[in-house]
Design brief:
The chain is mainly alpha-helical and 222 residues long. The chain is built from 7 helices and no strands.
């Protein structure tokens, strides 16, 4: 496989990398290169799995069976007092909630623990686009004869869901920032230098060194 070498000087490559990062990643100006080197190295090497989101998923996994049995029991109690269209809507909603919840929790675990943006984005979309509307229907439509136990378990489930939507949004923003930074750095094949302690995240130069006035080689590495 052919190897292509960039004719661009390394000093110019660094400037281009930082310019791209400031425009596409965090919209910072090029005046903060020294502090940004340390911040970028921290972003690349850090684990971005979101602990609050993982805790919410863990407790949700144990709460969901309790919610499901309570909801099914309450549905059985009031089923014959409901019109036919409400009976069909509630049965359909319960089936959708159950199936989507299993898939949603799995995607959340995989996306958060393994730092996979597509899976975590799918988790966020399922939570916001499917689970939230169905749960709000269970809580707000008085035509389905909302019982006190239903209101309590649905409200707690709604709190879990809203917290997970917010936490997954924050986790996605952090993961996307890290992946964007890695993408820009890999354009120049300089990512491995980020793992060297005390070195610049792009070119292995010591921290707090300016690369514009090129210093002598001995001073550069000592």
């Amino acid at each position: 496989m052919p190897v292509f070498y960039s004719p661009v000087p390394e000093n110019l490559q660094m400037g281009l990398a930082y310019m791209g990062g400031s425009v596409f990643t965090n919209n910072r100006t090029a005046d903060s290169d020294f502090t940004r080197e340390q911040e970028d190295a921290a972003v690349v090497n850090e684990l971005v799995s979101h602990l609050p989101l993982q805790m919410l998923l863990y407790f949700n996994m144990f709460y969901f069976p309790c919610w499901w049995f309570s909801a099914v029991f309450m549905l059985d109690v009031k089923f014959y007092y409901l019109p036919g269209y409400y009976q069909a809507l509630l049965i359909t909603g319960m089936i959708l909630l159950t199936v989507i919840e299993v898939v949603r929790l799995y995607l959340g675990y995989i996306g958060n623990l393994k730092e996979k943006v597509p899976e975590l984005a799918a988790f966020w979309l399922l939570s916001f686009m499917f689970q939230l509307p169905v749960l709000l229907f269970f809580l707000t439509d008085e035509g389905i004869i909302i019982l006190p136990l239903e209101r309590a378990v649905h409200s707690l489930y709604l709190l879990f869901l809203l917290a997970q939507i917010l936490a997954s949004f924050l986790a996605l923003r952090t993961m996307t920032r890290k992946l964007t930074l890695l993408f820009h750095l890999r354009q120049f094949g300089k990512v491995e230098s980020l793992r060297q302690a005390g070195m610049s995240p792009v070119y292995g130069l010591p921290y707090h060194r300016s690369v514009l006035p090129v210093s002598p080689t001995n001073d550069m590495y000592h």
